[in-house]
Amino acid sequence: MLGSLSIEQIDALLKNETVGRIGFIAGAKVSVVPIAYAYQDGYIYGRSHEGQKITAMRKDPNVCFEVDTMTTLTNWKSVILWGTFEEMKTPEETTHVMKVLADRITPLLQSETMRPAQRLPEPHPHNAGVKAIAFRIKVQEKSGKYESSF
Question: What is the pTM of this model?
């Protein structure tokens, strides 16, 4: 059976997942890339290094974002939303985004062989000197679909 997700089901999927795909326009190309994220109060929160994605979203802040979960090819849920990229400019805004991300992602980094993390991991050494950008996407519209063979 195919169907549409309710707003409550859409929000639950967005809150339960941590990897989504952000779509943006970079010049004459449409690009889609995965990011770790947190969803809270109508915003997708993220962090990225300076590069094509950030440059493109600064130029055209209209983006889409997709999240899905799949048990089998006939048991899945998918959400797409449309919104506006907002770069955090102040230290207070950046700190808020990093806290939201850390609160959501840090528990997933723990295991029996790893001590609890107190913050997000540091960037990989090949990114040394590259500025990290905290941002959020203000959700303006969202839609969700599912298929279930149960």
Answer: 0.84
Annotated domain spans of the chain: 2-110+118-147
CB-CB contact of 35 with 22 (8 Å): yes
3-class SS at 11? helix
The CA-atom distances, in angstroms, between 67 and each of 22, 90, 104, 135, 146 are 9, 28, 16, 18, 12
Superfamily of domain 2-110+118-147 in CATH is Electron Transport, Fmn-binding Protein; Chain A (2.30.110.10)
Q: Tens digit of pLDDT for each residue in 11-34? A: 999 999 999 999 999 989 999 999
Residue 149 tokens read as 């063979």
